[in-house]
Here is the input.
Amino acid sequence: MFRAIRWTATDGEPVCPRCGCVAVYEYASRPIFKCKGCGHQFSVTSGTIFASRKLPMRDYLMAIAIFVNGAKGHSALQLSRDLGCQYKTAFVLAHKLREAMVSEHKGKVLRGHVEIDGAYFGGYVKPENRKADRVDRRLSEHRSGKRRCVVGWRNSSHRVRVES
Here is the structure.
């Protein structure tokens, strides 16, 4: 399935990402390919957001389906429960999916009726236990610098886009 999605022009037949050659070897022992022209080894995930990840393809496709079908978003904790993997793995995977969604819509212009909403995420500084030791976290010198603004918008076609 992932091969058909990745190489649609050649009906799922692998193409070398370095030289564009369609003549490749497929290893029987490992899920990688080797180009006959330049000798470059690559896999189905090479050059994608899933490069250098060790989950099976089935889990990647399931994560995409779960992430896209969630009406209110999907937390990394729930994604880790659904996939049966560690929280840290699900967190990185969800972050990669969000990055891919943002990069796809970068530079596009919306027309017609547009609804916009935004929120701030992250950057929480835990307050001290004793009241005398607490500081005003609204001041810029007491912030962690990790706070991000996420803006979502929807135009008249009802397609939701997110930008961070």
In short: Helices lie at 2-6, 57-69, 76-83, 87-104. The chain has a mean pLDDT of 83. The longest helix spans residues 87-104. The chain has four helices and six strands.
